[in-house]
Amino acid sequence: MYFVTGGSFNGKSRWVKTHFNLSKADTTWLSLFEGNIHQLNEWNVSKPFIVIEGLEYGVRSSLLMNEPDFRQSFSMMLDSLSRWEEEHYERKIIWIGSEIGKGIVPMDKFSRGWRDMTGWVYQDLASMCQQVWAVWYGLATPLKG
Prior knowledge:
Blueprint: E1 2-6, H1 12-19, E2 27-31, E3 49-53, H2 55-64, H3 70-86, E4 92-98, H4 109-128, E5 131-136, E6 139-144
Parallel strand pairs: 1-4, 1-5, 2-3, 3-4
Antiparallel strand pairs: 5-6
Helix pairs in contact: 2-4, 3-4
């Protein structure tokens, strides 16, 4: 698995398409900007590349649904996706998530909880990924791998 993070609207998706040389024919692109992260459990993918973007919003939707033990269920999902990826050498899962932990700490309790949970989820994901990059202004900096 691979993880790309950085600021909103800083070119993460474009960088992923270019870096991994992705085409529509070989890539399933899943967006969590308006969807529940658990839609990933219902996927039926025949293409070797999966890009999952908007991870921070997947975390947010799960928190809005008051999902108990979200971090644990996300970790189990990561294990499952990792096993799928390892079944065939061509398979790659690429996560894209915007950095939301920098800057002013939010005043409201929910936003602070979202920020905290997103940080923990990103740490868990980064620990499982082969490579991690931060993309700012379209430029990638390797953080791992």
